[in-house]
Design brief:
The protein is α/β, with parallel strands linked by helices. Helices cover 44% and strands 15% of the residues. The two termini are 29 Å apart.
Amino acid sequence: MTAASVPPPRSELLVIGGRSGVGKSTVAAALHDLLADAAVRHVVVEGDSLDLAWPAPHREHPEARLAERNLAALWANTRALGHHRLVFTNTVSVLESARLAAAMGDDPTVTAVLLRADDDVTHGRLDHRAAGHVRQADVDHSATTARRLDATAPDHVVRLDTDGSTPAEIAGRIGRLVGWLA
Protein backbone atom coordinates (compact mmCIF):
# COMPACT_ATOMS: atom_id res chain seq x y z
CA MET A 1 0.00 0.00 0.00
CA THR A 2 1.45 3.38 -0.95
CA ALA A 3 1.32 6.45 1.22
CA ALA A 4 -1.18 7.99 -1.18
CA SER A 5 -3.57 5.08 -0.70
CA VAL A 6 -3.53 5.12 3.11
CA PRO A 7 -6.93 6.39 4.25
CA PRO A 8 -6.86 9.53 6.35
CA PRO A 9 -7.50 9.10 10.06
CA ARG A 10 -11.06 9.40 11.29
CA SER A 11 -12.00 12.92 12.29
CA GLU A 12 -12.29 13.78 15.97
CA LEU A 13 -14.50 16.51 17.40
CA LEU A 14 -13.95 17.94 20.87
CA VAL A 15 -16.67 20.34 21.96
CA ILE A 16 -16.09 22.54 24.96
CA GLY A 17 -19.19 24.19 26.35
CA GLY A 18 -20.20 26.06 29.47
CA ARG A 19 -21.64 29.24 30.83
CA SER A 20 -20.31 32.71 30.02
CA GLY A 21 -17.16 33.40 32.00
CA VAL A 22 -16.31 29.76 32.69
CA GLY A 23 -13.19 29.94 30.53
CA LYS A 24 -14.04 28.09 27.30
CA SER A 25 -12.00 30.33 25.01
CA THR A 26 -9.11 30.63 27.43
CA VAL A 27 -8.94 26.86 27.92
CA ALA A 28 -9.15 26.28 24.16
CA ALA A 29 -6.24 28.70 23.63
CA ALA A 30 -4.24 26.89 26.32
CA LEU A 31 -5.08 23.54 24.71
CA HIS A 32 -3.96 24.92 21.36
CA ASP A 33 -0.60 25.86 22.89
CA LEU A 34 -0.16 22.43 24.48
CA LEU A 35 -1.10 20.62 21.27
CA ALA A 36 1.17 22.83 19.17
CA ASP A 37 4.07 22.23 21.59
CA ALA A 38 3.43 18.48 21.24
CA ALA A 39 3.22 18.79 17.41
CA VAL A 40 -0.39 17.53 17.40
CA ARG A 41 -2.25 18.73 14.29
CA HIS A 42 -5.54 20.37 15.21
CA VAL A 43 -7.95 23.20 14.44
CA VAL A 44 -9.62 25.45 17.02
CA VAL A 45 -12.92 27.10 16.12
CA GLU A 46 -14.67 29.65 18.30
CA GLY A 47 -18.28 28.76 17.54
CA ASP A 48 -19.63 32.23 18.22
CA SER A 49 -17.66 33.58 15.27
CA LEU A 50 -19.42 31.32 12.77
CA ASP A 51 -22.63 33.33 12.75
CA LEU A 52 -21.76 36.57 14.52
CA ALA A 53 -23.83 39.13 12.66
CA TRP A 54 -26.59 41.60 13.27
CA PRO A 55 -29.39 40.93 13.04
CA ALA A 56 -28.60 37.51 14.44
CA PRO A 57 -29.00 34.94 11.65
CA HIS A 58 -30.18 32.23 14.05
CA ARG A 59 -33.05 34.48 15.12
CA GLU A 60 -34.06 35.84 11.71
CA HIS A 61 -33.48 32.64 9.73
CA PRO A 62 -33.16 29.68 12.11
CA GLU A 63 -33.68 27.25 9.24
CA ALA A 64 -30.54 28.57 7.52
CA ARG A 65 -28.26 27.10 10.22
CA LEU A 66 -25.52 29.51 9.19
CA ALA A 67 -23.06 28.42 11.89
CA GLU A 68 -23.32 24.80 10.80
CA ARG A 69 -22.96 25.70 7.13
CA ASN A 70 -19.89 27.80 7.91
CA LEU A 71 -18.45 24.99 10.02
CA ALA A 72 -18.96 22.55 7.14
CA ALA A 73 -17.06 24.84 4.76
CA LEU A 74 -14.27 25.55 7.23
CA TRP A 75 -13.90 21.87 8.10
CA ALA A 76 -13.82 20.79 4.45
CA ASN A 77 -11.02 23.27 3.81
CA THR A 78 -8.92 22.31 6.83
CA ARG A 79 -9.60 18.58 6.38
CA ALA A 80 -8.27 18.89 2.83
CA LEU A 81 -5.03 20.15 4.38
CA GLY A 82 -4.70 17.01 6.51
CA HIS A 83 -6.28 18.04 9.79
CA HIS A 84 -8.52 15.55 11.57
CA ARG A 85 -8.88 17.01 15.08
CA LEU A 86 -11.30 19.87 15.76
CA VAL A 87 -11.69 21.75 19.03
CA PHE A 88 -15.00 23.65 18.99
CA THR A 89 -16.04 26.07 21.73
CA ASN A 90 -19.51 27.46 22.25
CA THR A 91 -21.76 27.89 25.26
CA VAL A 92 -24.32 25.25 24.22
CA SER A 93 -22.06 23.07 22.05
CA VAL A 94 -22.44 20.13 24.44
CA LEU A 95 -26.16 20.13 23.62
CA GLU A 96 -25.55 20.37 19.88
CA SER A 97 -22.60 18.02 19.40
CA ALA A 98 -24.56 15.66 17.12
CA ARG A 99 -25.51 18.52 14.79
CA LEU A 100 -21.95 19.83 14.81
CA ALA A 101 -20.60 16.38 14.00
CA ALA A 102 -23.11 16.06 11.16
CA ALA A 103 -22.02 19.46 9.81
CA MET A 104 -18.45 18.17 9.64
CA GLY A 105 -19.74 15.58 7.19
CA ASP A 106 -17.25 12.83 7.91
CA ASP A 107 -18.60 10.92 10.94
CA PRO A 108 -16.15 12.13 13.60
CA THR A 109 -15.73 10.63 17.02
CA VAL A 110 -17.14 13.12 19.50
CA THR A 111 -16.08 14.09 23.00
CA ALA A 112 -18.11 16.73 24.81
CA VAL A 113 -16.82 18.60 27.86
CA LEU A 114 -18.93 20.93 29.98
CA LEU A 115 -16.79 23.37 31.96
CA ARG A 116 -18.28 24.39 35.29
CA ALA A 117 -17.41 27.03 37.87
CA ASP A 118 -18.99 28.47 40.99
CA ASP A 119 -21.11 31.61 40.62
CA ASP A 120 -18.61 33.76 42.55
CA VAL A 121 -15.68 32.59 40.42
CA THR A 122 -17.56 33.16 37.19
CA HIS A 123 -18.77 36.57 38.35
CA GLY A 124 -15.16 37.55 39.01
CA ARG A 125 -14.10 36.38 35.55
CA LEU A 126 -16.97 38.24 33.86
CA ASP A 127 -16.16 41.36 35.88
CA HIS A 128 -12.50 41.14 34.83
CA ARG A 129 -13.52 40.66 31.18
CA ALA A 130 -15.78 43.72 31.37
CA ALA A 131 -13.04 45.81 33.02
CA GLY A 132 -15.04 45.99 36.25
CA HIS A 133 -18.34 46.92 34.63
CA VAL A 134 -20.17 43.63 34.24
CA ARG A 135 -23.92 43.98 33.99
CA GLN A 136 -25.98 42.11 36.57
CA ALA A 137 -28.16 40.79 33.73
CA ASP A 138 -25.07 39.10 32.24
CA VAL A 139 -24.15 37.55 35.59
CA ASP A 140 -27.72 36.29 36.06
CA HIS A 141 -27.89 34.92 32.51
CA SER A 142 -24.60 33.07 33.03
CA ALA A 143 -25.91 31.47 36.23
CA THR A 144 -29.19 30.46 34.57
CA THR A 145 -27.31 28.99 31.61
CA ALA A 146 -25.04 27.02 33.94
CA ARG A 147 -28.00 25.38 35.65
CA ARG A 148 -29.70 24.63 32.31
CA LEU A 149 -26.57 23.10 30.77
CA ASP A 150 -25.82 20.96 33.80
CA ALA A 151 -29.42 19.72 33.94
CA THR A 152 -29.89 19.04 30.22
CA ALA A 153 -26.47 17.92 29.00
CA PRO A 154 -26.55 14.18 28.24
CA ASP A 155 -24.83 11.74 30.58
CA HIS A 156 -21.96 11.16 28.13
CA VAL A 157 -20.88 14.80 28.52
CA VAL A 158 -17.84 15.06 30.78
CA ARG A 159 -18.41 17.66 33.47
CA LEU A 160 -15.20 19.38 34.48
CA ASP A 161 -15.00 21.80 37.40
CA THR A 162 -12.57 24.66 36.76
CA ASP A 163 -12.45 26.35 40.18
CA GLY A 164 -8.90 26.52 41.51
CA SER A 165 -7.27 25.29 38.27
CA THR A 166 -5.31 27.25 35.71
CA PRO A 167 -6.38 27.20 32.06
CA ALA A 168 -3.26 25.16 31.22
CA GLU A 169 -4.15 22.57 33.88
CA ILE A 170 -7.68 22.25 32.55
CA ALA A 171 -6.41 22.10 28.96
CA GLY A 172 -3.98 19.34 29.93
CA ARG A 173 -6.77 17.32 31.52
CA ILE A 174 -8.90 17.71 28.41
CA GLY A 175 -5.99 16.85 26.10
CA ARG A 176 -5.35 13.65 28.03
CA LEU A 177 -9.07 12.87 28.17
CA VAL A 178 -9.32 12.83 24.37
CA GLY A 179 -5.98 11.04 24.03
CA TRP A 180 -4.26 13.86 22.13
CA LEU A 181 -1.71 14.44 24.90
CA ALA A 182 0.24 11.94 26.96
